[in-house]
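Might you be able to review the protein record set out just below?
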Amino acid sequence: QQQPASSSSAMDSKWANVVRSNINQQQNQQQQNRQNQQKKHQNNQKNSKKSTNPPSAGMLDWAYRGFTEATGPTGYQFIHYRNPTRTNQRTVRKRLAVIGISNRRVLAVQFPTKGVVSLLVHNAYAEEIKASLARGKVTPMTFDPHHESVICDPKHANLSASQKKQMATDIYYNRMLRLCSAMKPAHVGSSIIRYFHQVQGHFSLPDHIVEQFFASRADSNQNTTTSAQNSPQQPHTSTPNNLDFEGLCEEDFMSDAEGEQSQ
């Protein structure tokens, strides 16, 4: 029996819609594939440019210094300035950044007593930092961390001068112990405390503080090792040996000051 013409036309129209839908899907898929290929090609070009760029002079200088004897300034120092307003470390670092001093160059910001701010820096950067602040007529001050004037809290007013000196000394030693113990990376803290153990003067550290530092460091390493042994082993993932992955930039190659080993 012959199918009515109207039914045949409806069937043809239905199949035509299906065909058009399939064609549109194929075209969309092809367009998406082309876009993906273009993105992949662009990424490959970017990676190629990164990997083919030669190292800068600063990066090469940093690399060579790892195989030569140090010739520049070594060690650390505190630079003290008057601080007439109540503030915090974050604000001080913001001020330094505005002046143009990289906060990578300032290892620590401390407030050893009322009205004084202390910057711990590597000797390689000390003169540069002083010069930057001197442009604004800001000059460093002399400071003795053992002086009785460090203890300015009224509740200690009844203490004798010698008692205040001893308290100021204990505060300085404990502050340095906490600072070096918390310093990251750890070898920087070791370098700092060793240096101030060797120097003479107001900022010299005694044997018992250094011994306490390394005893605490040994206990911390032992606890870390024990914890790692007791925890389930994680699968090792290899790290690509390239500078882009490590997040290194030009400024990271300017000096080894922050990672200097003890002398």
